[in-house]
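Lab manual, section 2.4: Encoding a predicted structure.

Procedure: take the sequence of the chain (114 residues), apply the prediction step described in section 2.3, and record the output as structure tokens. A sample record is shown.
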Amino acid sequence: MGRVDESEGSKAIALKAIRGVFIERDARVVQELFAPDYIQHNPTIPNGRDAIAGLLGSLPEGFHYEPGMVVAEGSIVMIHGRYVGWAPEPMGELTRLVVLSTASRRRAAPRRDK
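Recorded output:
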């Protein structure tokens, strides 16, 4: 697979994972696309795929996610997105950059710092 093809495939996996969790709230996507040893860099969410699945039921009513720019190089993907309704007012809207690696069995996992 060429570098461009790998990057495009990685972007598709990462977007499917992020949309599945935050837009569709589909627990099947978590099992399919998140590595069991998923390392979470958000200190308010525990590590592991199960924590992401548990997050689905705790998202507040009115919460929605808007993916923005997506950039990939090989298996590393960065998604800049908007989380609306995540935090209490007046900080109800957050903008975050998510960095994922799809190298591990073509599943989403935050990039491990080296």
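Check your result against the sample. The chain has three helices and four strands.
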